[in-house]
Design brief:
Blueprint lengths: L8 E4 L5 E7 L5 E9 L6 E9 L2 E9 L7 E5 L3 E6 L5 E5 L3 E4 L7 E4 L4 E6 L5 E5 L3 E5 L7 E2 L13 E9 L3 E8 L13 H5 L6 E8 L7 E7 L2 E9 L2 E7 L8 E7 L5 E5 L4 E8 L5 E7 L11 E8 L4 E4 L1 E2 L4 E2 L2 E7 L2 E6 L3 E6 L4
Length: 364
């Protein structure tokens, strides 16, 4: 992926703007891993994750209704993996054991159906939605998530079901949509890369098979395609009709751990926009004015898969060619971070270390 690389110039952003820490879970013998974030309006945000207390895990949600001035921690009955909000109040959550629905911005949840290992949710309206996950799981609902039907075409690609993961659902309008995934061979038991980084740097990795399911009739029928690749197109967000931005994640032994790419949704041809050898990009956000933000973790060593949080780095670009590093609270560390927010004045980033930061533009 990424045949063309734009010149990248990292410069310092204006000192007036910074990413300010609004919430930090800091409890003795306990850690909060925030896994997903949704901010459907300027006032409301919901972050979901898992609290680990002495090896015992329980689900949790962190919620604000006043633009982040105050946050409430709510216990969940199951461990969440991802969420999707259609508007300010209506949303869905996939947990380790089912699909849940909320009508009050995440303060109360109702379990709808038992679906396991779901990694992505997407709803076109309050009735019509999709779910995708491990073991070639892809489902559609037409009653708001009460019942789900398997997408038959998800099993058509010639790939081992247990090795196939569908990890992203996205639509370009009400009819044209994609379910993205990959199939990768199981790794033989071996010493983790982070224990012996010098040897891992030169290990050749097996290519994965990228799988794309595409619909042009709102999910009634799907066509599938596949191709060999060295990375996983983990996130795809439509920026304009027919175009999108995609985040490709590469394995440890790659020179670049991740790339941001421009993707033509018709041909799936790509153009590389950003990559840095010492930064692991984990998410991006594009605002209505075209400005793009990248959330990255500064790799603490030569490998990205070291189980140690690195410094959170946020960069922005107005033209997708010149990128500016932004000021981030010095305490912000993570292995993974995700964005959410409706506009520039209301943009948040949540980390897997229990932190939520907001872009502070008050002194701009």
């Amino acid at each position: 992926m990424g045949a063309i690389l734009h010149a990248i110039c990292l410069i310092s952003a204006p000192a007036a703007e910074r990413w300010k820490l609004q919430y930090f879970y800091d409890q003795d013998q306990s850690e909060l891993e925030l896994r997903d974030l949704a901010c459907p309006s300027a006032d409301h945000c919901v972050a979901v994750g898992v609290i680990d207390h002495d090896g015992r895990e329980k689900g949790a949600a962190v919620i604000t209704s006043d633009s982040g001035e105050h946050w409430s921690l709510i216990e969940l009955k199951e461990r969440p993996g991802c969420i999707f909000f259609l508007n300010d109040t209506l949303g869905w959550m996939a947990t380790n054991a089912g699909i849940w629905r909320t009508e009050d911005t995440g303060r109360t949840w109702t379990k709808l159906q038992k679906l396991e290992a779901i990694q992505s949710l997407y709803f076109l309206d309050d009735s019509h939605g999709f779910a995708a996950g491990s073991k070639a799981a892809a489902y559609v609902t037409v009653d708001g998530g009460k019942t789900w039907k398997k997408v038959a075409e998800a099993d058509q690609p010639d790939a081992v079901r247990e090795q196939t993961v569908y990890d992203w659902v996205v639509f370009d309008g009400p009819l044209h949509g994609f379910i993205l995934g990959y199939s990768a061979p199981r790794q033989k038991s071996r010493t983790p890369d982070w224990i012996d980084p010098e040897r891992a740097r030169f290990r050749s990795g097996d290519p994965i098979t990228e799988i794309t399911l595409e619909t042009k009739d709102g999910g009634k029928t799907w066509n599938h395609s596949k191709r060999e690749s060295t990375g996983d197109l983990a996130r795809l967000k439509v920026t304009s009709r027919g175009m999108a931005l995609g985040l490709v994640i590469y394995p440890n032994f790659s020179k670049y751990p991740a790339e941001l790419e421009r993707v033509d949704l018709g041909s799936f041809e790509t153009q590389t926009l950003y990559r840095e050898a010492d930064r692991v990009v984990t998410d991006f956000a594009q605002l209505p004015n075209g400005e793009v933000f990248l959330a990255a973790v500064e790799a603490p060593g030569k490998l990205k898969d070291v189980p140690i949080p690195g410094k959170l780095k946020v960069s922005s670009s107005a033209d997708l060619a010149t990128w500016s590093d932004m000021e981030v609270d010095y305490r912000a560390e993570a292995q993974r971070a995700v964005f959410a927010g409706p506009d520039r004045a209301h943009l948040w980033v949540a980390t897997d270390t229990g932190m939520i930061l907001k872009l502070d533009t008050s002194r701009r």
